[in-house]
Each structure stands twice: as C-alpha cells, then as structure tokens.
Design a protein that fits this description.
The chain is mainly beta and 169 residues long. It contains 2 helices and 13 strands, in the order αββββαβββββββββ. The protein has one domain. The protein is globular, with a radius of gyration of 17 Å.
Length: 169
C-alpha cells in the first residue's frame, strides 16, 4: 500500500508542458571482478523525458531503503542520438547514456558505488502515451565490499539488462 501511495504521489509532481513523465521497469545483472554484484536498485524508476533526453530517478528505491535505514541513490541518463522508423507505429532508437548508483547505511559502512556507461537500444512507440522495450548492456567501474572480509576495493564491472518504459506527454 505504501509503494502505491508513493507512486501516485510522484505522478502528481508538477512538470513543464514540454516534458513527459513515466516509469521504467528494469531487470539487470551486473558482474564485477569478484563475481555477481547485486544492485539494490530494483524498483521502477520515475522517468522525466524531454526532447530525446531521458532521466531515470530511482525514487522508489530511495524511499524503500530509508525504511530500512539505508541510503540507495540511483540515477540513469540517456540521450536519443539515432531514431528511425521500423513501421508506421514503431521506431528504433539508440540512446547512449549511463547509470550511477550509491548504496550504504547511515554510517557509510560499507559504501558501494557503481558508475556504468550504458547504451540503450530498442523499439518505442511515442504518441500522447509512449511505450518502449530496450536492451541495455553496460561497462564501468565501482567500489564494492568483499563478501568475505568486508573490505572495499575498486573493480571493473559489466552489466546487461532489459527495460520496459511507459510515459505520457
């Protein structure tokens, strides 16, 4: 119930007339040099779109983490650089961008940070209401704790995922 209330509240935020607002559900997997790196960012993001720019703010993950006395901040930004028609209703898009995540508790121990370059490739239908399906590979670096010792270390990361987005103008 709490998640539904927060989601509906976020939809009521004031937006400019030219910007769109929506949500993106995503599933991704990230691997570091130590193996699988489980991202705490897993709830749908609040999206703000404007003239080919997509900003995904992981507000629901932040609210959920605060209830557990954690801090999970995440944001992703994509910019449409190529778009072409697939048929009368759908177009293919290429949107290079990136994701930044920070996860910690209120004592900042352990601190987990990840920064990835993530091009987003997919199909979308954009009218008054838009819908898109994307494949999102990624490569980057981060600081993560060792599962055995808890010591943090700098690591290279690769990721892959899918995103399903819906928005309105």
């Amino acid at each position: 119930m709490k998640r539904t209330f927060v989601s509906l509240s976020l939809l009521a935020l004031p937006m400019t007339a030219s910007a769109g607002v929506g949500f993106t559900a995503h599933q991704s997997w990230t691997y570091s040099s130590r193996g699988y790196w489980g991202s705490p960012i897993n709830l749908p993001s609040l999206d703000i779109t404007n003239k080919g720019l997509v900003v995904q703010i992981h507000a629901l993950d932040l609210v959920e983490a605060l209830t557990y006395e954690n801090l999970d901040l995440g944001v992703a930004v994509y910019k449409t650089t190529k778009a072409g028609p697939v048929n009368d209703n759908w177009k293919g898009v290429f949107q290079p961008g990136g994701r930044l995540e920070l996860s910690t508790n209120f004592d900042f121990d352990p601190l987990t940070v990840g920064a990835l370059f993530q091009p987003r490739l997919g199909f979308q239908k954009a009218d008054e209401f838009g819908f898109g399906l994307y494949v999102v590979p990624g490569i980057g670096a981060g600081v993560t704790p060792d599962p055995g010792t808890g010591d943090t270390a700098f690591e290279l990361m690769v990721s892959g995922g899918i995103q399903v987005a819906a928005w309105m103008k």
